Every structure is written in C-alpha cells, then in structure tokens.
C-alpha cells in the first residue's frame, strides 16, 4: 500500500495533526509544539477552519510528539462533538499503528502503546478514520506546530473567531471551556 499516494478524504471533518520538536538539546529548546487544523462543513456548504497552536512543556522523541498530536486531534473531535472525524497525519509509522484495532494482537512500536491505548479510549463511539498524507499536504498543521514550539505559553489561551458560521455564538470556545488539557498547554485557537 502506498501511503503517500493521493488520499481520498472521506466525508466528515478533517483533522490535520502535526508536531514539531527541536533536535538541539538545550535549556532554550525545551518545548514540543503541536499544530491541529480542523476543517469542517457546518452548514450551507461553507467551510469552517479551526487552527490550534498547543505546546507541551517538555522535549519528546519525534514519534511520541506525533502521537500526542494525533491524540489531541481525537480529543478535540470528541470535545467538539464531531460525529465523523478523519484524523490525518504525515507520519507513516503512526498512521499504520493507530489504524490497528487491537493493541494486544498488533501492539506496534513500544513507545506508542500508552498513547494508542488512550487514543482507542478517546475515539470509542466516534466514527473515525486515520489517514496518512504527505508532508507537503500537511503544511498548515506543520506551520502551526512550528509556531507553537517557538512560542511562549501564555497564562490563558488566545481565542480569535472570524468564522461566518459562528456569527451568534462561539462553538469552539464554548466546547473548550471545560476541556481537560492535561499536559497540553493551549497557546491560541483561531476560527475562520
């Protein structure tokens, strides 16, 4: 199976996930960045995009960082009550492993097991698929992750909303009001 081939995006919300780590080991580079771009078609065939910049205040191995990004994408899908979620990554190892339904029969890379167990729990009851795309096609999430890695983490998340479909209320901000971020530190959320 050629996972870099053009992917047929299925019906539902598309959640592009990526992470950025710094390979330099120094006190100045001790943060992992996560970028999530959620593209939905809420009503009247208008697309709505939500852009998330999130930090993790520790350095991680690249595969673990990518797994955290996919896990956050799944958690956001649940929080936003997305009935159909296409979780999209540019990491082939992660995509193949996360697609496996059974951690007991096909556990994948050992470092991914805790993330995949939580991922399976979070996605239970959500119709979801995991798709692998090329890095070229994941540029938005990649840019968000790089910006998050380099940003300072604010005391409160910055929310911006210019989405036409959010004219009377702010569903993303409202859905995240009680979101359990855990070790994820939200930097900014923008809706267009």
Please describe what this structure looks like.
The protein has a 7-stranded mixed beta sheet with strand order 5-4-1-2-3-7-6. It has a single domain (13-191), classed as Nucleotidyltransferase, domain 5. It has 192 residues and is α/β, with parallel strands linked by helices. Mean pLDDT is 84; it is low at 1-6. It has helices spanning 62-79, 92-99, 113-123, 139-150, 171-175; strands spanning 13-20, 32-43, 46-56, 84-89, 127-132, 158-161, 184-191.
Sequence-ordered SSE layout with sheet pairings:
Elements: E1 13-20, E2 32-43, E3 46-56, H1 62-79, E4 84-89, H2 92-99, H3 113-123, E5 127-132, H4 139-150, E6 158-161, H5 171-175, E7 184-191
Parallel strand pairs: 1-4, 4-5, 6-7
Antiparallel strand pairs: 1-2, 2-3, 3-7
Count of separate structural domains: 1
The strand order across the widest sheet is 5-4-1-2-3-7-6
Shape: globular
Taking the alpha carbons of the first and last residues, their distance comes to 35 Å
- Classified by CATH, the class is Alpha Beta
Give a quick account of the main beta sheet: strands, pairing sense, barrel closure.
7 strands, mixed
CATH topology: Nucleotidyltransferase, domain 5
Total strand count, please? 7
């Amino acid at each position: 199976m050629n996972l870099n081939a053009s992917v047929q995006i299925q019906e539902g919300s598309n959640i592009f996930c990526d992470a950025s780590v710094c390979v330099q080991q120094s006190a100045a580079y001790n943060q992992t960045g996560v970028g999530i771009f959620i593209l939905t078609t809420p009503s009247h065939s208008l697309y709505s995009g939500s852009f998330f910049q999130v930090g993790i205040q520790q350095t991680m191995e690249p595969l673990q960082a990518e797994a955290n990004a996919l896990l956050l994408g799944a958690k956001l899908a649940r929080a936003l009550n997305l009935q159909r979620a296409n979780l999209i990554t540019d990491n082939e190892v992660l995509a193949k492993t996360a697609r496996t339904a059974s951690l007991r029969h096909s556990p994948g890379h050992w470092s991914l097991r805790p993330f995949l167990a939580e991922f399976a729990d979070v996605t239970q009851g959500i119709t979801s698929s995991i798709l692998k795309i090329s890095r070229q096609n994941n540029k938005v999430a990649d840019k968000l992750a790089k910006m998050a890695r380099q940003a300072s983490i604010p005391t409160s998340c910055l929310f911006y909303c210019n989405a036409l479909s959010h004219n009377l209320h702010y569903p993303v901000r409202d859905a995240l009001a009680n979101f359990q971020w855990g070790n994820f530190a939200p930097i900014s959320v923008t809706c267009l």
